[in-house]
């Protein structure tokens, strides 16, 4: 699942993500292979800690993206979102595309991955989306913009914090939810179900909880360094807590972080490096 973060601050955009991708294999127990009673098929998760979820596109120096959710497209030969970026770059180059606005970049990225989805994913797919947070600066704009999109369920990019500053996150978000908004995102529905209250009250309950419990962080005040530090801390905390849990440990590996500013564009702050040996 991973954890992706886009932070829109007054001094710039921060994009951050972990490096873990989880693939799930279906395994038949030995009894079934020997023709005995048919037991339930086992689902075996396998994690890989060197995936790149912080996406940068050549010739588009003032925009970037992070991906979370479904880690790969295709069932026979799964590929990560990052592995498709050279094809996306070539598509933009062939079309003679110059610097794109953040919205236009998000639209083109969404259209590209919708086409990849249709070509390799089953029509009856049921599972998580491949989600993207796109952040960057329009030419001449004083502040950045952040868009969120989901492939395939909600491909139309929606702007986040359009009128102000703030942080957006997705993936295995429960611990970040508890730190920033003060409660797990599942809490309102759990409460309504337990008390047999109508679901129509869920949004009102959610808004009330946020008004009482959201961390008092002055997003419009924070320097870019503080935005980087907070983004890093949220992913580190999730990795640390998951290391003790009997649950899907979908966040792990190195943390990649970049900033995007109106003067310097996309600037890597921390990226994992190819190395000869572990350690």
What's the gist of this structure?
The protein is of the alpha+beta class. Helix content is about 30%, strand content about 25%. It has a five-stranded antiparallel sheet, with helices on one face. The chain has a five-stranded antiparallel sheet with strand order 5-6-7-8-9, with helices on one face. It has a two-stranded antiparallel sheet with strand order 3-4.
Notes on the structure:
The protein has a domain at 3-22 and 44-171 and 247-270: Aminohydrolase, N-terminal nucleophile (Ntn) domain (Glutamine Phosphoribosylpyrophosphate, subunit 1, domain 1). It is globular. With 279 residues, it is α+β, with helices and mostly antiparallel strands. A hairpin with an 8-residue loop joins strand 7 and strand 8. It has helices spanning 30-33, 85-94, 102-120, 174-180, 187-194, 202-213, 224-242; strands at 3-8, 13-17, 21-27, 42-48, 54-55, 63-69, 130-136, 145-151, 154-160, 166-171, 256-261, 265-270. Helix content is 28%, strand content 26%.
């Amino acid at each position: 699942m991973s954890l992706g973060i886009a932070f829109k601050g007054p001094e710039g955009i921060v994009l951050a993500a972990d490096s873990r991708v989880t693939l799930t294999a279906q395994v038949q127990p030995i009894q079934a292979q020997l023709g005995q009673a048919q037991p339930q098929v086992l689902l075996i998760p396998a994690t890989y800690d060197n995936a790149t979820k912080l996406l940068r596109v050549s010739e588009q120096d003032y925009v970037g993206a992070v991906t979370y959710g479904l880690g790969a497209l295709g069932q026979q030969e799964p590929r990560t979102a990052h592995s498709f970026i050279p094809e996306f770059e070539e598509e933009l180059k062939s079309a003679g595309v110059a610097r794109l606005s953040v919205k236009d970049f998000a639209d083109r990225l969404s259209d590209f991955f919708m086409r990849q989805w249709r070509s390799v994913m089953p029509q009856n797919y049921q599972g998580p989306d491949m989600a993207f947070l796109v952040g960057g600066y329009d030419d001449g704009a004083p502040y950045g913009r952040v868009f969120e999109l989901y492939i395939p369920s909600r491909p139309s990019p929606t702007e986040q914090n359009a009128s102000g500053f703030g942080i957006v996150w997705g993936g295995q978000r429960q611990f970040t939810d508890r730190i920033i908004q003060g409660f797990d995102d599942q809490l309102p529905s759990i409460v309504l179900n337990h008390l047999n209250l109508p679901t129509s009250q869920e949004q009102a309950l959610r808004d009330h909880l946020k008004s009482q419990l959201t961390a008092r962080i002055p997003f419009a005040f924070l320097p870019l360094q503080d935005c980087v530090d907070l983004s890093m801390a949220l992913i580190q905390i999730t990795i640390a807590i998951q290391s003790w849990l009997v649950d899907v440990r979908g966040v792990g590996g190195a943390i990649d972080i970049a900033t995007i500013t109106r003067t310097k564009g996309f600037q890597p702050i921390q990226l994992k490096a190819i190395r000869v040996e572990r350690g």
